[in-house]
Design brief:
The strands form two sheets. A five-stranded mixed sheet has the order 2-4-5-7-6. The relative contact order is 0.06. It is α+β, with helices and mostly antiparallel strands and 385 residues long.
Length: 385
């Protein structure tokens, strides 16, 4: 009998017996739920804390659940005592739910505040900020994205600072290297105009050398700018690297002889690479010229070419070598081991090794200073395959 009574009091039986009343009741509940959801969505956009928003959301959900239970209970024609029991159970459930939300939302709120503080510190210029957390949800993803963003911002700012420093050094060094030949040209021109030059031809030859030095400096700066912008295009051909080295030695032989230096090529036969003949000749000439300027009089500058895994060119001299503090910046533009060196004892603008590095890297190779005696600067490029 009790079982039959329970069956009669199920919600399904009530809906079957009173379909219109049940439809109106649950239709009203559905509309009420939608209205509350829209109101909560509007509130969440204005809520100041996530924990409060979660608490109100859970309380609203409990209110809807209790209301639905109340309506269902009324439809099932429960007695007043039975209905009160249902409401007491719902209230107890609501209490536990609120406790759960308060505990969980405290953790979530703390994580959100850490994200907010991190963003504000980043906005203030602090690039050491890192969001520490172990969340695997969307908040964890946001924290990881913020960390990546800060790292990228720091890298970009460091790069910008380095570019700005390099730009200032470029302007200062170009101004310095332009000043000497321009001053010499002005002095020679004034001497010729005033008629005080005892040997006009010697003055004219000196002026021609200064003009050539200015042209080389301008060409070098233009070449470096093209290398930096990766706009320099090469016509790559299958070439024998040994022949390129021989031509470079022939072109620098007069300068080496005047300095009392003997140029030596260690010839391995043939070493073929797919590269620009002009670019490789420029690289080798720059390295040989650097060796001539630093080698003691009466010594050799040796060019050694090998083909072990890659085409390797090693230029060695018996000079004092590169100072330890200079090694890391030897291939930077406008750097000299001795900044007080006169213009006629160093390459114009201090760009020789910087250009060599740019051309080598443009060919997919690398260049380095070897820690050896005699002093050696070497580079390698891929062999012809």
């Amino acid at each position: 009998m009790n079982a039959m009574l329970a069956m009669e009091l199920t919600l399904g039986s009530v809906i079957t017996k009173h379909p219109v009343l049940a439809a109106l009741a649950f239709g009203g509940m559905t509309l009420g739920t939608i209205a509350i959801a829209l109101a909560l969505r509007s509130y969440q956009r204005r809520a100041r804390t996530l924990s409060r928003s979660m608490l109100i959301l859970v309380l609203s959900a409990l209110l809807i659940a209790v209301s639905a239970a109340f309506v269902a209970a009324r439809l099932m024609v429960l007695t007043e005592g039975e209905l009160l029991a249902v409401l007491e159970v719902a209230a107890l459930a609501a209490g536990f739910a609120v406790l759960l939300v308060l505990i969980v939302s405290r953790s979530i709120g703390g994580d959100v505040r850490r994200l907010e503080n991190a963003v504000r510190e980043i906005e203030a210029g602090d690039r050491s900020v890192r969001v520490v957390g172990r969340r695997a949800d969307e908040l964890g993803h946001v924290g990881s994205a913020i960390n990546d963003l800060v790292s990228r911002l720091k890298a970009l700012e460091d790069e910008r600072a380095a570019i700005e420093t390099e730009r200032q050094n470029l302007l200062a060094n170009v101004g310095h290297d332009l000043r000497s030949p321009l001053a010499a040209l002005r002095a020679a021109t004034e001497a010729l105009v005033d008629g005080v030059a005892r040997d006009p031809q010697r003055y004219l030859r000196s002026m021609l050398r200064d003009i050539e030095a200015l042209g080389v400096l301008i060409d070098d700066v233009a070449l470096l700018s093209q290398l930096d912008a990766k706009r320099l295009e090469f016509e790559r051909l299958p070439i024998n690297l040994v022949e390129i080295a021989e031509a470079a030695i022939d072109s620098l032989e007069p300068i080496a002889s005047a300095a009392g230096i003997h140029l030596v090529l260690v010839d391995p036969g043939v070493v073929y690479v797919n590269a620009s003949p002009v670019a490789l000749a420029r690289i080798i000439r720059n390295l040989i010229d650097n060796g001539i300027r630093h080698a003691p009089r009466g010594t050799d500058v040796t060019v050694n070419i090998s083909a072990e895994g890659a085409a390797t060119v090693r230029v060695s001299d018996d000079g004092p070598g590169f100072p330890g503090e200079f090694r890391d910046s030897a291939f930077d533009r406008f750097t000299r081991a001795d900044v007080s060196r006169a213009r006629n004892t160093g390459s114009v603008g201090g760009l020789g090794l910087a250009i060599a590095r740019g051309l080598v890297e443009a060919h997919g190779g690398e260049i380095w200073i070897e820690d050896s005696s005699p002093t050696s600067v070497a580079f390698r490029v891929p062999l012809l395959t």
